[in-house]
Each structure stands twice: as structure tokens, then as C-alpha cells.
Protein: Homoserine dehydrogenase
Organism: Cylindrotheca closterium
Amino acid sequence: MKAVASIHLFAILASWSITDAFLPSLTPVSPSVSTTARFSTVLVSPREDISTLTESILTPRGSQHSWEVHKFGGASLATAELYKTVGDLLASEASGKDNSSGAVPTMAIVSARGGMTDQLVKVVDSALVDFKLAKTVLNEAVEGQIDLLRELASPEITAKIEANIRNDANDILLLVQSLRMINTVPSVTMEVVTGYGEIWSAQTLNAYLQTKNLPCEWIDARPILMVQSDSLGLGEKGAASTAGVMPLWKETSNNLATWWNTVGMERGMLDCDYKAGVSPIVVVTGFVASTIDGVPTTLKRSGSDYSATIFAKILGASRVTMWKNTNGVYTADPRRVPEAFSIDSLKYDEALELAYFGAQVLHPSAMVPCIDDNIPVYVRNIFNPAFEGTVVQGRCLTLKETASSGKSVNWRAKKGIIPIKGITSVDKVALVTLEGASAIGGSRVAERFMGAMADNNINVLIITQASSESSICVAVPENEGDKAIEALRSSFELELARSTVGSLSVNKGMSIVAIVGEGMNSSSGISATFMSSMARANVNIRLIAQGSSERQIAVVVDKDDATRALRAAHMAFTLSETTASVALIGSSGSIGKAFVKQLKTQRRTLIDELGICPRVMIAANSKKMAIAETAKGLPIDQLDGLLDGDLVATSDLDRISEEIEANVNPHRVVIDCTNNEKVAKYYERWMSSGIDIISPNRQIVAGPLDRYSRVCEAQRESNSNWQYSSSVGSALPVIETLRDLVETGDKVHKIRGSVSCTLAYILSTFDEETSFSEALAQAVEKEFTEKDIRQDLSGSDMARKVVILARQLGINVGLEDVEVESFITEEMASNDNLKAGDLQSIDAEMLEKYREAAADGRELRYKFEITKETGKCRCFLEAVDNRDPLFRLKNIENLVAFETDRYSASPLIIKGAAAGPDLTAAGIFSDFLRLTRAYSSEQA
């Protein structure tokens, strides 16, 4: 018997056609004479067929409602519990719930159990090389389905279904075993085998519904749904096309009516007690269909959505609900844009654009059958059925209607209106480019180029053409890139040989990012906002295309930039709050803790007033670091003691760099609250990656001139921000004022003052009763000094600040160019553990200087002076009289005086408190505010 069956199967495969005799499960019920007669009166045209059929044949008698169609994907049917969830939901929907007008006739379109299709694909793929493996995989698939079935219903219900599944498995084995005889896999074989996943799934769900004593039955769609298919095989997983599969409406309507009037009548579905909440539930296999010749085929991968809307159109359904595991269609993929949210409503055209450009929630073809009859398509969450989800219904304006609607308006002038509905992407894209074909004529180039693509069945996603050189660039699926190049080489073989075509190239590893929405229509500023968001996120655009309908703009970017591009666009159109991803280094130090305190206090203000949400993704000190596990960041309220816990790692600047570089947020900033040389060495790397930096760290900005120049160059090339205002004067606006003077054209001649709170405190505190070393000890206790007091006492701390100011003025000096007067001896300078008590040896000398100054009514001040004309910079101790602004300098203050052309009669003076970590942190926070305002203005 098996030998005969094998011979029969081989004969079928050889002809690439499978007859009804081969498929025992494909047993359409033969229509009765009366049914045939009733049908003969309605088969006129597809639209009329469907309309008349719905009213006269498929509407259950006594129901006040039209059919509703529900579709469930594999993710909703992965376990027995999920099958129960789906069954219970169907029972609830069919009962009409709180609807006083009674129950609702219900059809459910189901996919295969989660993962089943991939298992069946593996069965076929393995059969040629390892039949034993194919058998094992098939057995696992079958036993998994049967185990699940047994959990859902009693043996009385499941025994027949189990026998059907095992019989189907035997047929599959016979079929795939015969493949070894022809040493190939005909596409129809793959479609036949994979379709069993839906058949088993539909029977399993129907088994559970039977346990609830509901009028229910399942339908194998293969003898019902007739299609015309121009392609072979399953298609790519996740593909945005049903690849030329067209339903045959008349034949499908006829077959469905036949089933309804035979099986439906036998099962008592035509006459239900709708007022009592009893309604028929018909479970239909998605994905599978047959050609008019009876050859089994499919609607291609992800085609179950299409099945649902095809049957909805035939039934004249009042709605279609696609049950997913998300709360509808989102503004972007929430896995890549955590701030994405569910869209309330979409037009069919918008949904088609989103689906075409990669939104996996809806299949593009699924919209088409519902458009003519304006059947609403709902996308809802199987795990949150109370949520309304997204409804897709209605059409966008046509091009003619758009043209007559009036002049365009800048979209930002439309208060409260967001012009786009969503942002989506297509990954695994290649750019294929033909360049330099002007010698052979632009029109012929385009014709032959696209002809080569069409002749080789290459799916062109986007096309752009540069008329000046007759160059053409198209985006195609990455796995078709090489095929496209070969097709073009063949088509332009002669021109390439004569060099009238410059070159052909393919660039892989690309992604398409697209914005979609009817609101883009006749709105100016859309492209500018989109492109600006890409630029500020440091995303290089390789191709730009805008649809003539003005409903979408698409760009092609490197795949590694795609997520950052999605988030940047999402923020730019105010679909989400603008977030700043922060790496906080030195978070447990005195300055770091002070900054965290201010951030906690002001975070709500940043969000409410500036629309910026700061999220600390990394917190680190010299020994430990903590890295956020989610896009929400580390808990800011717990940052103070976070690094004291056990769930932290050893601090690693390379790891920190990798994490912040990999962060997909377009707004990334390192806040360095240290003055550490090791940290400063990473500035060039960070800014080269487009990461902004805020810091009082003077190791770079006052460091070796060549390194400072390299970092500045990295900043310019990447367009990143480097804010270091707190490096001079803490929170005082010293650097900002100097920049404003220079940038507004004022000529600065001299800068002088005092910018060392340590020395200001000591020189204002020590006197006849308090020695110099005792005053220093007080400054240390108050945390006014650097950790290494030698930097203060040698004058090097102030000298670094002088270098920073001089460089802002355009004087290229290094620390070695500053004349510095030191308070300590060379022996003290070599003491790595110098303490305040070690300076008692200079107390007498300093007391003498104090007495000399006091005798003339002067005060000792450690001051600096920068002269623009000579480039001379110096730091020195001087006794100043009451005509000098420094005379009244308080012990916690800095003072800077600018002598310029505008301020020649009297210098511009900036004076104020600058001592302690709180004020330094305030300066850092001011820089952060300036940066976040820049982020916010990008979206304005």
C-alpha cells in the first residue's frame, strides 16, 4: 500500500500538481441540489456575488448582527492556556456581551501554533539530506500539538482529531520521503506541508469550543478559498507582500455558501437563539488556499491576516479584529523606541504605508479587501482585551483633493496636531546603484534598469534617479542585492564594456526608515524636521525618497544607525518626550553627589518645562559602576548609595564607552564630575561618536595643546557639544561671558582676577591669630581645595584655569607657558601626601607678607593676568589696595575682570561665590540645562 502511495506521490510531484485524491483532509462537502440552485442566481460579478450572498445565504436567521471576524496569530496560540484564552474570548465576543440586541455570528481565522510553521519547514528542508532528522522533527511537531490538544478537551472530543493529525503526519512522511527520488523540493510541496499547521490548530481550538457546548465547527480553507497565484513557495518570513496572490471571489463565495448550507445546517448553526446569547462560531484555517485547479497553495508568510479580510468581505462583516500581543498599532516598534505608544486610529492608506515599510503588526494585503466596503479593521491585544486598540478605516485625500485643498501650512503652527502617525523601518536592505549613464539617454536607462529588475523578480522598495548623470539607485531586499547586480550587468553588458556606463555597485547592511501620516499632506517643514533629526542624531542618509501622495518620506541609513534614527524622528515630531541618556562619572564623589541632588530636585522641571527627560544609564566612580538594564535608566532617587551595593561591576572605562556608544538614543551625554586624567583620555573617542560631554575636568581643556586640538577637531567633525563652563568659576558665567564678548565682535585686551577659592579663603582668613597652615586646614575641611592640595598651593590649579581662558581668547598656550608663583618649596611639591600641617614652615614668611600689606592698608590676593596683545599669562601673589576690585574679594569668591573696547572706561566684572562642591555642581547643572535646551530646540 505504501509503495503504491509513494509511486502516486512521485507522479504528482513530477507534474507539480496535487489532486484531491492525494489530500484526504481536503474533503469539501458536495452541495445539495437545492443549494446549487439557490447559488445559480447570484453568480454575476464579484461585488454583486458577495453582497447578495451575504444577505441571502450567510446571515444566520434571527440574528440582528452581521458577522464579525477575529484573527489569531501563532503567538496567541502557543500554549494550551493561550488556546483557552482565545476560546473564552471568542465565546464572550460571540455572546454579544452587554449588547442588548443579542449574540453575534462569529468567525475565527487561526494561524498555526506558535513555532509550528518553522518546524514543518524544517521537516521539508531536512528530508533531502537527513530523512531521520525530518522524521524526528515532524514527530516533535505532532506530539507537541497532540499534547496540547489533550489539555483542552476530553478523549471523546480529541480522539478523532488526534487520529486526523497522525494520519496527516503519515501523509507528510510519504510526501517528503518521495522528495529523495527527485532530489529537489517543489514549491507546492513546501506549501502543502506547512499548511497542516493551520489545519491542526483550527481543529484544536474547535475542540476546546466544543467543551463549552457552543454551536461551532472548523473549516479547512483549502477547498473553500480559491486564489490565483503568480508566485511559488512561501515567500520570505515577515515579507510585506502576498506576492501576487489574488482571491477568486465568485468561486470562494460559492464554496463558502455551499459549506454553510450543508455542514452549517447539519450543525444547527443556521438557527441559533441569538436573544439567549447563542451564536455560531466558525473556526477557519488562515494562510492556506487552493488554486482553481485544486492545487493547494498559501497566501504566503504572514498571510493569515489576508485570510481574515477576504472572508470578512465575503461575509459582509461589520468588523475584523486582528488579535495581537500588543495594544494596537504603535507609533514605532516599542522594542526599539521604548517611548512608542498605541495609535487610536489610522486610515487604510496610512496603515498600508506603515505595513509596507516594515510595521509587522499588520500585513499590507490585509487592508485591501476591506477598503471598498469600508469594513473597519481593529488591532487589539489578546492579553488586554479591555483596551480599545487601533481601528483602521476610511481613506486619505487623493492627490486631486490635496491639490485643491489650499496652500500649505507649517505643521508647527497647528497647535496640538502631530502630522505623522508612525515611524517604521525595513531592515536587511541593499542599495544598488548605476552611475554615469548619461551618454545613453536617461529614459532608456530607467526603462532598461527597471526592466532588468522586473525580469528577474527583484522587489524594488525605493527608487531615486539623478538626471544630471542618469544615475539610478534602488533599495532592494539584501538577499536580492547580488542578483540585482548580475541582472544589471547582463542588461548593460555592452555599455559597461564601452565604459558608457560608469559603474554598478551594491551596498549591503542598510535599513529604510520612514515617517507616515496623512497630516504630512500640504504641511511644510516636515522634511526639514525629519532630516534635521537625522543630522543631530549623527545618522548619515544614503538615499531619500518622498511618495507623491505626501503621506510618507523614507530614507536609507546604515543598519547600525536605524534604531537611533527611529528614536530621533520619534522625538522630533513630539511623539515622545525628548530623552537624554546620561553616563555619570564620579557619581559618588562630593561634586557628583551634589549634582545628583540637583538633578533629583529639578528633573520634573526639565520634563514639564523643557520637554526633556534625563535618564541616567550609567553611574560610575573610580572603582565601581552600575549600568541600567532597561531604557528607563537607573533610579535617580537611589543613585546616592547605588555604588555601595553588591549588584555593581568593577569600573571599566572601555565598557562604559561601549555602552554609551551603543545607546540608540540620539541625545547621549557623559557628565564627568571628576578631574581625572584617565577619564579625560576618553573625550576624543566619545566626541568622535557624537556623544556630548559636560565636565569641570581641566585635564583636556587645559592639557597639552596637541591633545586639546585633537579633541576640538573631533568635536567639530561630529557636531557634538563640549560644555566645561564649571571648569572656571564653578557656577559663575565666566566662560560664557568671554565667548559672548568674542562672538559679538568685542576686542578683549586683558583678563585679570582671581579664580582660586582655596587661595581666596586662605588669604582672607589667615592673620595675626590664624596661621597660613591653619587657614589651609579650614579650607580642606570645608572641601574648598582640590584633593591634592599641591595643585592649589603651587598655583597650577589657577594656571590651568588661565590656560582655559587664554585658549577661549585665541591664545594657543600650554600650562608651561604660564608664569606661576608658588607658595610651596620644591621639597613640598615632591611630597605626594602633603598635608596642611606640613606647611607650618612657611607660616612665618606668610605672616611677614601679611604684615607688610596691612601696614599700607592693602590685602594679599593671588591673582592672574592675561594680556591678549603679548600673549603673556601669569599667576602671582600681590598686595592690592582699595582701588583694585580684588580688594573686597570674600573668602569664598572668584572674580574675573574683562578689559575690552566696549568696557574700556570700566572693566566688565563677574564676581560671586564659587567655593565648594554644591556650586561646582550648579555649574555642571547649568551646562546640562544649556544642552537640554539645545535638545529641546531641535524639536521646536
Summary: The first helix runs from residue 2 to 14. Residues 422-570 form a domain with the VC0802-like fold (CATH 3.30.2130.10). The chain has 32 helices and 33 strands. The longest strand covers residues 422-435.
